Amino acid sequence: MTGAALALVMIMGGGAQAASITPPSEAFAQNPGSDYFLADYTAYEAYLKTLASQSDRMKLVDFGKSEEGRTQWMAVVSSPANLAKLDHYKSISKRLAKAEGLSKEEAAKLAAEGKAVVWIDAGLHATETVTSQGQIQVLYRMLTMNDPETLRMLDDVIILFAHDNPDGMELVSDWYMRHPDPKKREFNSIPRLYQKYVGHDNNRDSYMSQMAETTNVNKQLFREWYPQIIFNQHQTGPTGMVVFVPPFRDPFNYNYDPLVMTTLQEVGMAMHSRLVAEDKPGSGARSAASYSTWHNGMERSIAYFHNAVGLLTEIIGGPTPESVKLVPNLQLPNGDRPMPIEPQPWHLAQTVEYQWTMDRAVIDYASRNRERLLANIYKMGANSIERGSKDSWTMTPTKVDAMNEAAKTAKPAAEDGMMAAFFGRAGAVDPTIYKTVVQTPETRDPRGYIIPSDQADMPTVTAFLNALIKSGVDVDKATKAFKVGDKTYPAGSYVVKAAQAYRPHILDMFEPQDHPHDTEYPGGPPKAPYDITGYTLAYQMGIKFDRILDGFEAPTERVPDLIGVTPGAIKGSGKAGWLISHETNRSFTLTARLLKAGAPVFWLKDGAKAGKTSFGAGAIWVPASAQAQSIVAQGVKDLGIDAYAVGAQPAGASIPLKNIRIGLVDVYGGSMPSGWNRWLFEQFEAPFQVVYPQRLDAGDLAKDFDVLVFADGVVPAPQGGPFRAGRSFTQPKAEDIPAEYRAWLGAITDDKTVPQIADFAKNGGTVITIGSSSRLATALGAPVEVAVAKKDGDKLVGLSNKEFYIPGSVLRAKVDNTQPLAYGMPTEVDVFFDRSPTFNLKASAPGVARVSWFDTDKPLRSGWAVGQEKLKGSTGVLDIDYGKGKLLVMGPEVTQRAQPYGTFKFLFNGLLYGPAAAKD
After folding, report:
1. pLDDT tens column, 202-261
2. Nearest to 496, CA basis, from 519, 478, 470
3. Using CA atoms, how far apart are residues 241 and 268, in angstroms rounded to an integer?
4. What's the pTM?
5. Strands (E), 200-244
6. Measuring CA to CA, which of 122, 294, 486, 717 is 20 to 30 A from 362?
7. What distance in Å separates the CA atoms of residue 840 and residue 76, rounded to the nearest whole number?
8. Residue 119: which of 263, 233, 213 has the closest Cα?
9. What string of DSSP letters covers 115-137?
């Protein structure tokens, strides 16, 4: 949807008098925020339209469709005078945020004229129900109150009240309200994820922007409205407290402007102060919870990389009353917990009042600091442009370590005496180290990045660039060939300059994350990060790019919007059939289309040539037929890949492929990794159906499936073992849920499920395991053993975190791309690794092939890795013969949150290769 097409719906009413605006208590079956009641999205949407028709303080904006097709609404709230000039204020917000071509004097004038823009959302995580229910009450009060503070806020601030997850609100509310007896209402037994594909991971999609809802939100934040404050509300609060409120604990990411962090602390403390002033105890910051500001994938954290203040609150409460627990050690106030709360019963109405106070605190801060917020977002954008326009250096933990190492042999710094130690200034070293170690020519930050247009998988390049564009990054395209340094780049190559306001985000997407060695205490075990530590998107997606350290110019034009896939073509005029490269992920889609239509497709083991074009091992051969002709002709156009028409069938051995039936294993309540794979299969047109443990336990699996895919975490693992154990959830009794969901109940077990999986594979089926579900390799008795583990008596256990700890990082692995499981891949690949299993082959391991392995004691590319040297020599991806079938083991998370396009081929190849290799 274009900016011009964002619908401003509903008329603006003639007055904002409370008497003329319907209160929530009259619009809903029960007052939202009261016990044992949840309004659903249908009722919420109807109420928004009612408010928009009655109030002159609100405009209602349709900003996109959810994955299930519901409208995402945003209530734009401000004074009538401001609403009359929305486009004008939006333009000011954009100009200041982008900072391009704007002098300090011009920016100061715009800041004086503009209005602060604050985003306050609700419902991202749908079972965190207070955010949606509370937003209803907050909206009503902002539209009806006429006290001086409210009127000042409305004059100074434009508030964007948005809903992040309509589908989830409908699902959760309706599930909760299905019981007529209020005391039986609950939402812990919901049968599926509360976002169509990814559930809770909808708040890990921000920089990738693959879900429809994320794309819609990012467009408002970074391409339409450019708010200075982004308030993302969540549940639940820390035990023994009511709510977590920023500031956050360290580490914070070194890429963003420090001004965003200092402002964040101001806003957070303003929220705490207002809670305390209103006698609302129980708030905590920093050490009160594990939340940090490192990872870019969350809605409030991506804000920091865009020079905006990102706020996260986590509060207790829900429609079913609960209680504040007593934790004695939290009863003494300190800097992070200024006003402890005593144990007591707790109701949703109390949570709503806390939410109201925090929302008011944020809006009040924006009102009182309107001009400064606007000036500062310009300042941060201008800083980024300046840093990207000259030699600059970003300080990282590795550079700090290098300075400390250099200091061991350098001339000691002059001592400041006793006062230095007293004031914490001890430890000074020779200042010349800063220049000689940190500010060297080769350690400069890039001035920009060039992505050549002649790389093998341009559709994946397009997906990467669109992720940048969706988050507001400016991308340019070369109009003709050009040269930078000694290298010539073809026309159509892409350029991402660092000299733009969102430079922190650009660096975070191209450069490795260098996570500090963060321990519980000096010499202690690692302190667990809030989320993953390394996620460089260019690495995960296998993008080839050049870092340009010197200033450069290129003949380019700005990419105006999302990039469509450049259509491929049929090249040559041969009549025997078509050769297609295996290097593009989309070749899987074309293959799936052909097989579905019954057209034969082969993989050529030794590759092939078409004229001067060489194809590596696994080149795809499609014999000519009328049916194949139409599919190939259409496919090259919409998939962006080329097909080479040749006059004779290539010589050499080949693997004939089969049309396949995929069973994607899921569990009751929904697995997020399985949900990501489901989305991925739909995008790439893999033929699949979802299968649950009861069906696996029933056996005779070959009747319905050729391949079973076990996503990370689907196969349970015991705590303390060598495989990462996921969270366990208590399932409902069958009689307590609707009949249509009862077949989804159950769990994968060693005694009932594993024998059926073994029987399936022994009789020609293919079993694919990803991540921790690779425990099936040992459960099925494959001739492999876990590489990074130790014996405790006769039990195999995992290493301690002090010995081995890789909490979500990008590692470099070797690949044997002459093997079918790795056809189309380079000889080295970046893999996502989150405490993943790797394996060693037993002394006698017939029918086992190593496909990808670690050959160095320093495989870390991005993130944090304690004990990484222990991976050397171990295997991450295995091709194992199992009876007549295949067991294909992928220890690293090759489809992690559908981001690592560079390793999708392991899975795609496995889906086709396993059934093709099955013995009769």
Report:
1. 999 999 999 999 999 999 999 999 999 999 999 999 999 999 999 999 998 999 999 999
2. 478
3. 17
4. 0.96
5. 229-234, 243-244
6. 294
7. 58
8. 233
9. -EEEEEEE-SSTT-THHHHHHHH
